[in-house]
Amino acid sequence: MTSLQADKLMNLTGRIALVTGGGTGIGLMIAQGLAANGAKVYITGRRLAVLQSVADAWDRTVGGEIIPLPMDVTNKESIMNAKLIIQGREGKLHILVNNAGQVGPTSPFMGDLTSPISRNAELFGQALFEGESFESWSELYRINTFSIFFVTTAFLGLLDAGSRDKPDWTSVVINTTSISGIIRIAQEHFAYNSAKAAASHLTRLLSTEIALKGFPVRVNAIAPGVYASEMTMSAVRPEDTDKIGKGIQPVPAKRAGSVEEMAGTAVYLASQAGGYMNGQEMIIDGGYIAVNPSV
Predict the structure, then answer these.
(1) Where in this chain does the entry annotate a coiled-coil region (predicted)?
(2) Is residue 210 part of a domain?
């Protein structure tokens, strides 16, 4: 059956997508994967020059388009301005990827188990207390967690419209979470890991409430392990994978994830092939969770 061929199952021709944080790292991998399979992809971020550079470099003969669209996912006015632009140009949206994020406050001393701080409860507690702030945690949650709620709800009507223009098709929200929100170790950043855990649960909450209301919009998440990004470095050498992952045990794959593995996962969720998946979080981590403690 030709309908089971990969080029049919994964075909995104005619689909309209929006990827937040789409100018670099994982967001760029996903945007390129969607566009390569035929989608028109709007990439957003706060740095227009970065977005424009990506769009200019994209080879349209490969598949769909990549279009820059400035948007600050922590600002409701900016989100609504972007929504109105998509509404005016397209009238619908099929794929929303909530990818924008950052690391936030870190406590590097946690990685040195021989330091006096790590060997004394009072020193350890005070170092964490003094080294971080309510403000830094709040700012991190704004972009890593709160933005998922506000961007998704802003675009929900357009996603609903996208679901109704083709039989047997449902629009999809894909949230980029992280294995950091699933594992039981802090990796030197309590704020980031807890914010990603909140994003994972927010994915489940949104998928359930949207389904219960009868809106034909699926909500899933991708939880990456170590991939090249601005949070890690422009490229991850195999020997640096475990330094970045900061696990108790090394990554079984002995390398970072690839562009093809990230893009392929997103394309699956966005395409007809993944049309029966809703409320799930796909972990792509080279086996990190298999050998490190997780929830």
Answers:
(1) none
(2) yes
Beta carbons within 8 Å of 145's beta carbon, 6+ residues apart: 195, 196, 198, 199, 202
Q: Calculate Rg over the CA atoms of the chain.
A: 19
Q: Pick the catalytic residue: 192, 227, 268, 288?
A: 192
- The domain containing residue 238 runs over which residues? 2-290
Number of domains in the chain: 1
For residue 158, the domain's CATH number is 3.40.50.720
Q: Would you say residue 295 lies in a domain?
A: no
Query: Could you tell me if residue 258 is inside a domain?
Result: yes
pLDDT in tens, the chain (295 residues): 667 888 788 899 999 999 999 999 999 999 999 999 999 999 999 999 999 999 999 987 778 999 999 999 999 999 999 999 999 999 999 999 999 999 989 999 998 888 899 899 999 999 999 999 999 999 999 999 999 999 999 999 999 999 998 777 899 999 999 999 999 999 999 999 999 999 999 999 999 999 999 999 999 999 999 997 654 445 678 778 888 899 999 999 999 999 999 999 999 999 999 999 999 999 999 999 999 999 8
pTM: 0.94
Q: CA dist 84 to 49, 76, 139, 163, 233, Å?
A: 22, 12, 26, 18, 34
182 belongs to a structural domain: yes
